[in-house]
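Consider the following input, taken from an annotated entry for Polysaccharide biosynthesis protein (Parathalassolituus penaei).
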Amino acid sequence: MSIFETFKGLRSGIGANSYGQVVNIVIQLVSVPVFLFFWSAEEYGKWLLLVAIPSYLSMSDFGIANVVSNQMNMLSARGEWAAVNELFGGTLTLFFIILSAAFVLGGGIFYFDDASYVVVYVLCLNVILILSGNLIQAVFRCYDRYSSGVYWDVNSRLIEWVSSIVAVSVSKDFVVVALSMLFARVVWLVYAIVYLTKINGDIHFRFGRIGCISHLIKDSIRFSLIPLSNGINIQGFSILVGSLLGPVYLVVFNSYRTISRMAIQMVSIVSHSAWPKFSRMYGAGGAGIRDLYESLTAYIWVGVIALAICVFVFYYFFISYWTNGEVVFDPGLSAVFFIYSILGGGWHLSRILLISTNNHGKLALFMLLANAIALVIGFFSVNSVVDAVLILVALEFLLFVYSRKESGLLLSDFDK
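Applying the prediction step yields:
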């Protein structure tokens, strides 16, 4: 398969995911100065703390939305719309129950004097709506409109963020800002439902039996182990370095890792664009899935190595200017992170292949076990930042080998 043929079907998805990366960067860069313009540093710090608390709810669906989305996409590829609607209706009912329970059980907080309770409550409702939005993306995928779903999701975050900026400029009250975010999310969700109903009527926005998704619970729980493993990797090693070496070395570690992960993030734009393609191909019998995977793997390897080299070459510039000279450039540390970024990007597509076809169970368990063991080893052996990075390199190598093995076994069922 030529490079043109490989990327022709993915270019709209790549464009949408690239747009998402740009929006995320803009939000991250602009939020701090804008909010600090209206709030004091203490107020903004309190807001960040309040926002962080509901974020843990993002795992409350135990991966059900993602697993159901994959299954719906595979079923739609075979034209089994009755089964698609059954899954969609059951999941819709589940999320409605979760949202209703949260609304009723948390309603009493409005009687507390501290507005923080109200803010957290409203933000929790918003997070549940975000989880429900994953089902909207599932509908887009079933209609083979993956890029439209990504644009909708990114724009929902953008509109929510803009509404919070407008709210804080009008009122510095935390509750007003939180309510503005919730209102924006509700309006955008309703818009998506109306839009999808008009363009295609194959999927009905109706409640169904929860029992129809019971066979996906096992896959859903295992899917939830993947973000848990990522949390151990990202936050766990940050806490490890900070507690063993001190806050100064933590800044060094996080600065270098953030820069080195730029190559991995760029690779993820391509691999995530292949996600719905893998699902539909697998659901339709697997024709062409090996060809697409092998073609993308070759180009991703070239891309991740080229990007890693660029990052390595400009490490001095990034470290010196991005940190205002607070972090000193270390060639040896840069070299180790260079290997880390290549390995991290090298197995990303294998992971997406397994996740998109709901064959991620063994990988998820291995990821959790490997990350946990790596963290324990680090606790007893890390004496420098380089030690921590070497453990991460070994971890990425193990995950690379295992994910390639699992994806190879999956692809062995299909002829080239």
